[in-house]
Write a structure and sequence with these properties.
The chain is an alpha+beta fold and 194 residues long. It has helices at residues 60-80, 97-110, 118-127, 130-144, 153-162, 175-193; strands spanning 19-24, 31-37, 54-59, 91-96. It has 6 helices and 4 strands, in the order E-E-E-H-E-H-H-H-H-H. The protein starts with 18 loop residues before the first strand and ends with a helix.
């Protein structure tokens, strides 16, 4: 059976227009930007970008630290669904909406971190199930989903993925429980002060 053809990583405009668009600059400098989009026009020379849907921006240097892990994880899942594999290229690369949520979550985790902890973030991100990644994206996006929102849930995601090393024996880490404990501690401090 022939694989279903997709654009970028799993994006099939005939199925849904909702996707994430990754803009990758040429060269080693510049910023990789991600936008959420609900429209697609095959006839337009360039995809339309809505600044209100700008989700995250990271340096090309940090992008290089995660692009291979993203490609491998996404292509493994696309293969399971009999969809053509994707690859990163300079310019614009569409990403299927659920894969895009997972990608943005990882990018949020590393946007303000020291590049030396990116391997820890990738390992912890890979230790989460896809459903856990979707849930963390949804919770974070609801309160701090714009590229400039770097507080609250965004900080919690960064700490959970970059400062919580996974032991090799336990691939499935307990990041969500840690987030709840951190949040409960924060809530407790708030209630005591009132």
């Amino acid at each position: 059976m022939a694989r279903k053809k997709a654009l970028g990583f799993g994006f099939i405009p005939q199925d849904t227009k909702h996707h994430f668009l990754v803009l990758i600059p040429k060269g080693n400098d510049g910023q990789v930007n991600v936008y959420e989009s609900f429209t697609w026009d095959d006839t337009a020379p360039q995809p339309k970008i809505d600044e209100q849907k700008h989700k995250v921006s990271i340096s090309k240097h940090k992008w290089k630290g995660i692009e291979t892990a993203l490609k491998n994880e996404f292509n493994k899942r696309l293969q399971e669904q009999n969809i053509t594999a994707g690859r990163w290229a300079n310019g614009s690369v569409p990403v299927e909406r659920l894969l895009g949520k997972e990608m943005v979550l990882l990018m949020w985790a590393i946007e303000d971190c020291d590049p030396s902890v990116i391997p820890t973030a990738v390992k912890n991100w890979l230790g989460l199930t896809r459903e856990e990644r979707w849930w963390l994206f949804t919770m974070t996006n609801a309160s701090t989903g714009h590229a400039q929102d770097r507080r609250g849930w965004r900080k919690a995601v960064r700490y959970a993925l970059t400062e919580n090393p996974v032991e090799e024996k336990h691939v499935q880490c307990n990041i969500i429980e840690q987030l709840f404990q951190q949040h409960a501690g924060y809530q407790g401090a708030t209630y005591k002060d009132e």
